[in-house]
Design goal:
The radius of gyration is 20 Å and the shape is globular. The longest helix has 18 residues. Helices cover 44% and strands 13% of the residues. The chain has one domain: TIM Barrel (Alpha-Beta Barrel). The strands form three sheets. The chain has a four-stranded parallel sheet with strand order 5-6-7-8. The protein has a three-stranded parallel sheet with strand order 9-1-10, covered by helices on one side. Helix 2 crosses helix 10, helix 3 packs across helix 11 and helix 6 crosses helix 9. The chain has 356 residues and is of the alpha/beta class.
Length: 356
């Protein structure tokens, strides 16, 4: 009890807690105490009663992927007849139509992600980015670290050179996807063909060194233990100390339906406890995002009292989580209504958390 009180005092004094202190707090502090601590830390960081959101669209340029992640219900394996199978590579007309609709709906960015397609080399991605920039004035938030690592290896380029080429072609920032849990003993079980932790971190490091910003994520509730959650957050916090390049941290729960991992889905209470710990552990990342895509509107609304200051994207389109049987959808009007009803002021933002 004395040690727990010591940890609580450190948080109240805005002192950094380490992995073991975070674990102790997570395991032994009651639910509402965690909520109160995280809520206070949120208002210490963001005194205004503003909750931000971004209007964008997830565009998956292909679902063909060699990674074969056990947690993914979206991908299709390569080497199939695409006319008969479900695999695709997006056409430029479809891409054009999706982006135009996004802009018409008030969108300011697109989230461009896809599978690790064995036949696509860097020229494809450069052409894709340049096509978008030639036709639209929109922020491209794209290519998670595993994609960039795959493109680099496929094209026999360094991570740094690959990012430089993509940036010159129009890539503006990098999403934090593909992190899952940044512990290799877990990654080797759930995504054995995807880049390991150090490669994920190195992509982000190189992007930050080139002046790009990125988000960081964590997907939990599959094969990890609670210690892995804190090891994951510690690796991101250490890189943030080094580069200051992360704009936000976004934890969400694994959705097991239609996947190759059979586990009981995490409860809303378990999600909110991890969310609160995210706010308390990250003293160097200002924005913590609620995941209404996996939790639904009411729990996302509750998350605003557990440390979250951002509602993420209106997601005009989302396919990956939907493939796992989760189909929560919120319009911009509904999202702002939820924020207002919770007693906050909704404000649209851009990718860098500047208010629009």
């Amino acid at each position: 009890m004395d040690s727990l009180n010591h940890i609580l005092k450190k948080i109240e004094d805005n002192q950094r807690i380490d992995i073991n202190e975070g674990l102790a707090l997570f395991r032994h502090t009651d639910f509402l105490t965690l909520a109160n601590l995280a809520n206070q830390k949120r208002f210490d960081t963001h005194p205004e009663k503003i909750i931000t959101y971004v209007v964008d669209r997830n565009i998956n340029y292909t679902n063909i992927c060699v990674s074969g992640c056990r947690f993914c219900a979206f991908y299709e394996p390569p080497n199939q007849d695409q006319n008969k199978g479900k695999g695709y590579v997006i056409s430029k007309q479809e891409l054009f139509d999706k982006i135009q609709e996004t802009i018409d709906l008030g969108g300011t960015q697109i989230l461009l992600q896809g599978g690790m397609h064995p036949d696509l080399e860097i020229d494809y991605y450069v052409d894709l980015l340049m096509y978008i920039k030639d036709n639209f004035d929109i922020h491209i938030h794209g290519f998670s670290p595993p994609e960039i690592d795959f493109i680099a290896n496929k094209s026999c380029l360094t991570i740094s050179k690959t990012i430089s080429i993509l940036r010159k072609a129009g890539l503006a920032s990098i999403p934090g996807g593909g992190a899952e849990i940044l512990c290799d003993d877990i990654r080797e079980k759930v995504s054995p063909n995807k880049c390991l932790s150090e490669q994920w971190l190195e992509v982000m490091r190189q992007a930050h060194l080139q002046g790009m910003r990125s988000s960081a994520t964590m997907m939990f509730g599959h094969l990890e233990k609670d210690i892995h959650i804190f090891e994951h957050m510690d690796k991101i916090r250490r890189l943030q100390d080094e580069t200051k390049g992360f704009t936000a941290f976004i934890p969400w729960t694994f959705q097991p339906d239609n996947t190759k991992i059979s586990v009981k889905k995490k409860t809303s209470v378990e999600y909110l406890r991890v969310l609160a710990m995210s706010r308390l552990f990250f003293d160097n990342i200002e924005n913590i995002q609620a995941s209404w895509v996996t939790q639904g509107d009411k729990i996302a609304q509750t998350a605003l009292f557990f440390g979250a200051n951002d509602m993420g994207s209106t997601m005009i389109e989302e396919n990956v989580v939907a493939s796992a049987g989760v189909d929560f959808m919120l319009s911009k009007e509904e999202l702002t209504r939820l924020i207002t009803k919770a007693g906050f002021e909704p404000r649209q933002r851009d990718c860098y958390y500047n208010l629009i």
